[in-house]
Amino acid sequence: MGTRAARGFGQYSGVARAVERVGERWALLIVRDLLGGARRYSDLKASLPRIPTNILSDRLKELQESGLVRRVPSVRGGYELTPLGRGLEPVVLALERWGWSVLGDPGEGETMSADALGFALSAAFRPDAAAALPPTEYVLTLSGAEPPVAVSAIVVAGTLDVVPVGSGALPQPRRRSALEPVPEAVLELELAPAALRALLADGVAGRPGTTPFTGDAELLERFTRTFRIEPVGPPPGAAGAAGAAVA
């Protein structure tokens, strides 16, 4: 308590208390990755390549002290969110959607990890639209990523289950019920990060023959109906332009 008071904002406020726990640099990105399931220390470091190892250790310790993260006894070097930590999911999903409104094109050296890709799909998921569509598996691969970045997203009856694809990933339990039908349709998409942004934000993708994917146009349309991130507000600069027009 003394440490928190020393570093706190002096505000008896829910927002202040939340930021005291997850407002440090990198903390929310660690929470984002752990929302996908248990991760090893090495997994978190690989997903956040620019984080110094000492900072990652410090943030994990702080998140554990705050009751948001705990060690996984069955996984060496493994961490997972506590129920209190998982309560941040709607907050981080909302922040992901808001961030896509100001995302822009990738900057020099910016990458997207499998955890970031899977979380973007979770933020874009539209359960009401998906409920009216047949069970489908979507396999997305980011082109040019090294090591390869890919996730499998299975959509059944308005539910979404996303797991990383490839070696090294901790096995995560599928959340689908054994009674639910297994998807027979599979769409494979290979996209650059900027093309993924256009697909999720605008529903725009190259037609067969221009964008590498296995499947048909109907499955691609099914994807754009299932996954979409609506812009939160007008594009950057639009508000200023509108104000100038009024003046």
From TrEMBL:
Keywords from the UniProt entry: DNA-binding, Transcription, Transcription regulation
Keyword check for Flavoprotein: no
Gene3D superfamilies assigned: Winged helix-like DNA-binding domain superfamily/Winged helix DNA-binding domain
Domain HTH hxlR-type: 13-107
Segments forming a coiled coil: none
Keyword Chloroplast among record annotations: no
Source domain of life: Bacteria
InterPro entries in the record: HTH_HxlR, WH-like_DNA-bd_sf, WH_DNA-bd_sf
One matching Pfam family: HxlR
PROSITE patterns for this protein: HTH_HXLR (PS51118)
Name of the protein in its database record: Helix-turn-helix transcriptional regulator
Organism of this sequence: Agromyces soli
Taxonomic classification: Bacteria, Bacillati, Actinomycetota, Actinomycetes, Micrococcales
